[in-house]
Amino acid sequence: MKKITVAVLVSGGGTNLQAILDAEKRGELPHAHIGVVVSSRPDAYALERAKKAGVPTVVAERKKCASQEEFERGIERAIESVGAEVIVLAGFMSILSEKFTSRYPERIINVHPSLIPKFCGKGFYGLRVHEAVLAAGEKVTGATVHYVNEVPDGGRIIFRKEVPVMEGDTPEILQRRVMEEAEWQLLPRAVELTAERVAAEHARKEIQMDIYKVNDINALLGANTYPGRGIVLGKSADGKHAVFAYFIMGRSENSRNRVFVEKENELVIYPFDESKVEDPSLIIYSPVKKVWNKWIVTNGDQTDTVEAALLAGESFESALEKREFEPDAPNYTPRISGLIDLESKFAYKLSILKSADEKGSACNRYSFSYEPVNGLGHFIHTYNCDGNPIPTFTGEPERVAIGSDLAEFANGMWENLNAANKIALYVGFIDLKTYRVKTMLFNKHSK
């Protein structure tokens, strides 16, 4: 996997730069590589830090430029020279113009030493922020990592972390605590998160460029730390089986506290430890059910909605018109659903219900119908990648290869799901002559 190149802009000592360099050295930036450090001052110690780490450096002095445009063009040349796609402002003391920031939407990261929207904007930088915090008598401060737009400290927030204000703090003491406990922790995480998102965007564009490209499901899973919940439907390479797969992942204790339990013609999710259940409505449901000779696969209790509709003679699509995305703001997790129909002629469908905006004010519904092709499946998942909030899946279901061996296909998926976040996987091969199904089930937790 090719890493995303990052350019870091600095003006001073470079402690935040060092935090990123250290994170890369520890292997905590699997999707990112620091390609160049650009300083607005030739005497910035950050340049020495970069040189010690073997990172190329460029100096772009504002005072030596006739205009802001000339200054920013020098920065752009440095960025373009290494092909950087993510930019980090690490103690960079110049405000960038709207013309510059608009070229890199949600690709420029800044860390601010307060809990935005408090003590931010023009005039709030360095020790001035901490002086203002102490003068206001605040008991809690912290740091915010956000994307940069035309408004100083006004871009979308990525991470925030609180840090206590202690009795007897000076601006210098408080500044150090905020850096150690918040800035140096959040900034590398934001760099990796953004690089992972950019890498995922590249992967989707490659798929869109070749509409007939068939992807390796294991490669897709291995390159994505958090696709969320996912469904694969398709046909085996030998043409003998209809295939389904469903997996779940989780970041919170409530989400991870789950196991799959297989019953006759049904898969049920139960809590692994019932004493830790916080919201059972979002984690306990039947993701797989058989109705006549049709198999329903979903990521929520809409399985029951589809089942009731089919029994009443209604369609898969009409059933999902009654449902919408999950109400778990700010993520608004999409509801994904699939149907394998073996009643008369083998066909399958996928659907996603997702929020129309970041406020959850409306639901968009998308349905996809497929005629089976030997060795081809379609993969839909709830999220593009990890994030905060987590970015919703976009585009059409991804085309993936399906072999002829159940164990090989299932084991490959389980092994390539992110080890920290995977919870359970269920895979089925349905014989197209006998309609008997063979399944494999994986649980991270076992009773």
By DSSP (H or I, 4+ residues per run), the number of helices equals 11
Low-confidence stretches: none
Looking at CATH, which topology of the largest domain would you report?
A: Glutamine Phosphoribosylpyrophosphate, subunit 1, domain 1
Largest sheet: 7 strands, mixed
Strand content: 25-35%
Principal-axes shape call: elongated
Mean pLDDT: 91
Distance between the amino and carboxyl termini:
37 Å
Q: Could you walk me through the main structural features you see in this protein, from its secondary elements to its overall organization?
A:
Helix content is 27%, strand content 29%. It is of the alpha+beta class and 447 residues long. It has 2 domains: 4-200, 3-Layer(aba) Sandwich (Rossmann fold), CATH 3.40.50.170; 212-443, Inosine monophosphate cyclohydrolase-like (Glutamine Phosphoribosylpyrophosphate, subunit 1, domain 1, 4-Layer Sandwich), CATH 3.60.20. A 7-stranded mixed β-sheet has the order 3-2-1-4-5-6-7, with helices on both faces. Strands 10-11-12-13-14-15-16 form a 7-stranded antiparallel β-sheet. It has a 6-stranded antiparallel β-sheet with strand order 18-17-8-9-19-20, covered by helices on one side. Helix 1 crosses helix 6 (171-209). The two termini are 37 Å apart.
